[in-house]
Design brief:
By secondary structure, the protein is mainly alpha-helical. Among the domains are: 92 residues, no CATH class; 127 residues, no CATH class. Strands 2-1-3-4-5-6 form a six-stranded mixed beta sheet, covered by helices on one side. A hairpin with a 4-residue loop joins β4 and β5. The longest helix has 17 residues.
Length: 621
């Protein structure tokens, strides 16, 4: 393994309101005293100093009449004092607003914006907005809505946001680009992608921010193919992507395993974006995440070494990336370098990565040591993700009872993922009907209930013990509850286009060629001794049916398509939504030898790099 050397970004672009409320132009000279007070309201003013200025202003100005609007000069000075106090003490600013007679929309917007930007007081911006509407003397304007919509997005306040949208329509701001951008961000942040897209499609004029916001919304909710489609549409309309656009697209490439598009995106950033964008730690963390998730761990190492600045997220990406690829020692080395050489404090995510490395390597003692040090040395309270790693580590190592003991001692309720890990281990290790049924019952009681995967695993436990009556009962239960097995899905990128294959899929335009290639593959493999493992087939009555169902697994369709289209010497990269079954694992190892091809498969838990008849997981997954 080459030494740590090459990385990139992590957090997708989240929009903020386009700009602050525009203040009125500076007033003409009023009095020497007022001009002097304005000159004292600097950006770095302290709260005691501000209170002195406020007191002096109240002392020397004429008392306002409550039924009349403030004169222009007084209003401007009030707005400046409110703006400064909002940055220092929001509660003081709130009391100041209540003392201002007849405040205009700029005065209201100043405080609404301050609350919307506060990490803890965003709800207050909505309360203040409703006060403004109820007051009735100053109507919300195009500068009001971006701030309250930002608060709604943060609070997942869908109903309130829809009411604000209705008022936007009522007041005639549906043609304002900035307001529409805020609506797109609000709906996308709350998962209302259809509503977000309707606003976007209805915009009379769009800006680069409009494309960035809608693309990021789809990326955030895992709609990577749609996001990339919008990106291509954006390019067709001659919008030049910026750093925010590229962060979102790189994240989409990571989600899809779209290596060639991710590589192009990196080249675009280096070639077309400003140097500060190319050097930005968020951008580089995103690129790093993309390379590791696309199976290009060596390129991730190379990028990591070239990064001008690294943070904890950068190191976490490398630690987790090494773990996913089965490079356990490198994952441990990166952790040690982060803590000792760089003197960075690991986060809870760091330990998820390290424990995952132990899991993929079957290193029980090391996993226990890292788990203990997380608590005793770094003071990090274990979360359910850490317990999940340890339970899976024990269970896959054959220590099912130790895993059960750990689960019983957890301070929180185990989730369905933990119970399914145990059930999966029971199935693989033939742990016995009694233990398997116990775990299955716990799955049933846990939050989320029994999924299709749980039923399938339980049926395999019964089948391995030749209890066919129980297998039939499981099938009957699935039928009665309308539960169907989650279909396998595999993605493969070819020439910048992502192709999706579902188990048994015949919708691809080249399906006939693909299935003919599958027949040719199996003929060659049978000639070198391949025998299907029928226990991995979907529940079926006859051996022929089981053999046929194995042929339809989605990664086999993707591999056949890759063999038909990949250039010689180019690895075939596949992303799969489920764990690779043992029969497909054996088959792929043989394909890598017989067809002299490298195949990289990213399944639900890790990477498998098949080459020359071997797999990087060393048959432990």
């Amino acid at each position: 393994m080459t030494s740590l050397a090459f990385v990139a970004t992590s957090q997708p672009f989240i929009t903020t309101p386009p700009h602050s409320p525009s203040p009125p132009p500076p007033p003409p000279p009023s009095s020497h005293h007022n001009r002097h007070l304005l000159s004292l309201l600097t950006d770095n003013i302290s709260m005691p100093h501000l209170k002195q200025i406020h007191a002096q202003f109240l002392k020397t100005s004429s008392p306002p009449l409550p039924h009349l609007p403030l004169d222009y000069h007084t209003l401007f000075l009030y707005s400046r004092i409110l703006h400064s106090s909002a940055a220092l003490d929001l509660h003081y600013a709130d009391r100041l607003l209540s003392a201002i007679p007849n405040p205009n929309s700029f005065i209201w917007n100043t405080l609404i914006r301050a609350y919307a930007r506060s990490p803890d007081l965003k709800l207050r911006s909505l309360v203040l907005y409703h006060r403004m509407v109820a007051d009735g003397r100053a109507a919300p304007d195009k500068y009001t809505f971006p701030f309250v919509l930002k608060a709604c997005a943060f609070l997942f306040a869908v109903w309130e946001g829809r009411q604000i949208h209705a008022r936007i329509v009522k007041l005639g701001f549906t043609c304002d680009t900035h307001v529409n951008n805020s609506l797109i961000h609000f709906y996308a942040s709350c998962g209302c992608l259809d509503a977000s897209r309707r606003v976007f499609d209805g915009m009379p004029e769009r800006s680069l921010v409009s494309w960035n916001v809608v693309i990021d919304g789809y990326v955030h909710w895992g709609e990577f193919v749609v996001a990339i489609g919008l990106f291509r549409e954006m390019q067709g309309l001659s919008f030049e992507p910026d750093g925010f656009t590229m962060q979102s697209i790189v994240c989409a490439c990571a989600g899809l395993g779209a290596f060639s598009l991710g590589l192009w995106s990196h080249a675009y950033v280096l070639r077309n974006c400003q140097q500060e964008v190319a050097d930005d730690v968020l951008m580089n963390n995103c690129l790093l995440d993309m390379y590791t998730k696309c199976g290009a761990i060596y390129m991730a190492v190379q990028l990591f070494g070239c990064m001008p600045k690294r943070d904890v997220t950068s190191w976490n990406a490398m630690i987790i990336g090494f773990a996913m690829h089965g490079h356990v020692k490198e994952s441990f080395d990166a952790f040690g370098c982060m803590c000792t050489k760089e003197r960075l404090k690991p986060s809870s995510i760091t330990f998820v990565g390290v424990l995952s490395a132990c899991n993929h390597g079957g290193l029980v003692n090391e996993g226990q040591r890292y788990f203990d040090s997380m608590v005793t040395e770094y003071g990090i309270a274990p979360q359910i993700e850490h317990y999940g790693c340890m339970v899976d580590l024990f269970a896959r190592a054959g220590l099912v009872y130790e895993a059960l003991n750990l689960v019983s001692g957890m301070p929180m309720k185990p989730d369905v993922v933990i119970w399914r890990s145990l059930l999966d281990a029971c199935c693989k290790l033939n742990a016995g009907i009694e233990v398997s049924e116990l775990v299955a019952k716990r799955v049933l009681k846990s939050e989320g209930g029994m999924s299709s995967g749980t039923y399938v695993l339980l049926s395999r436990v019964y089948a391995s013990a030749n209890q066919w009556n129980e297998v039939g009962l499981v099938r009957k239960l699935m039928s009665e509850k309308g539960i169907t097995k989650e279909p396998g899905c595999s993605l493969i990128e070819m020439d910048g286009v992502v192709h999706e294959f579902i188990a048994g899929d015949t919708s691809h335009p080249r399906s006939q060629e693909i299935y003919e290639m599958l027949e040719a593959i199996e003929e060659k493999l049978v000639s070198v001794g391949y025998t299907p493992d029928l226990s991995q087939a979907h529940i079926a009555d006859h051996a022929d049916e089981k053999r046929h169902s194995l042929r339809l697994h989605s990664e086999r369709l993707a591999i056949a398509f890759g063999l038909l289209n990949a250039k010689p010497g180019t690895p075939i990269r596949i992303l799969k939504n489920l764990r690779v079954c043992s029969d497909c694992h054996t088959l792929t190892k043989l394909i890598s030898t017989v067809f002299d091809v490298e195949i990289i498969v990213r399944d639900r838990t890790r990477f498998h790099r098949f080459k020359a008849g071997l797999c990087s997981c060393m048959d432990y997954w």
